[in-house]
Amino acid sequence: MGGEPLEAAGLAVGVVDDHPVVVEGVRTWLERDARARVAHVADTVEGIPENLDVLILDLNLHGRLVLDEVADLASCAQRVITFSQFTEPEMVLAAIEAGACEFVAKNEGRAHLLEAVLSVADDRPYVTPTAAGVLACDRRPEAARLSERERTALLWWFQSMSKRSVARRMGVSVHTVEMYIKRARVKYAQAGRPAPTKADMLARAIEDGLITPEEVVGYRSAAAGR
Questions:
Q1: What is the pLDDT of residues 133-166, one digit of tens each?
Q2: Are 186 and 147 in contact (CB under 8 A)?
Q3: What is the dihedral of CA 204, 182, 100, 56, to 10 degrees?
Q4: Residue 196 to residues 114, 116, 146: CA-CA distances in angstroms?
Q5: CA separation, residue 55 to residues 78, 129, 138, 153 (Å)
Q6: What's CA 161's distance to the chain center, in Å?
Q7: Sorted alphabetically, which keywords does the UniProt record give (predicted)?
Q8: 110 exposed, middle or buried (CB, 10 Å; 0-12, 13-18, 19+)?
Q9: What is the rounded distance in angstroms from the CA atom of residue 226 to the CA atom of residue 222?
Q10: Which tens digits make up the pLDDT trace of 93-113?
């Protein structure tokens, strides 16, 4: 199954699944709403267009789990919704920790998938019943599960670096840095710890041990002496 050309209107959604029946079902679900269209279809993560608004990704492709691919896509600021029949708590948590913006079970239907697509594209939190049940039963500390790239962007941003400076240091665009920060903010909201401002985000990061107050002050002092 190869990639299909992008069209021009609405949210551009990619669907990667190795079952054609599932792909056609998702296409039918989404394209009943004028706000979304399927702009790319494939059965592998190779050759995914960079300008997709959202990517719906089956976690099991050709008999292989693709959690590493989720992390790679998330590190490139792709908004990924993992879409799977595997709903074991460890699988849901692993997908979210890898950088997926949302987890949708294949049995949750059109309404949840569409709402997840619209919310993720707008960088708003949305938690499906499956993900909500898993997160509610997770007894680990309520830290937002940030990807490594999200943590790096936040750390440097907190150290009084402009987003442009962070982007230059990370070797990405300013848009990508903004995506990392927005996605981290969504994850804090999903964990029940909203952080609408930079000060709130810094407080959450200190609570979670991502950064210490000394690191922030130390960087500012060093910068001031230059």
A1: 887 676 555 567 777 888 888 888 887 788 888 9
A2: no
A3: 160
A4: 25, 20, 16
A5: 7, 20, 26, 22
A6: 23
A7: DNA-binding, Phosphoprotein, Sigma factor, Transcription, Transcription regulation
A8: middle
A9: 7
A10: 889 888 888 899 999 999 999
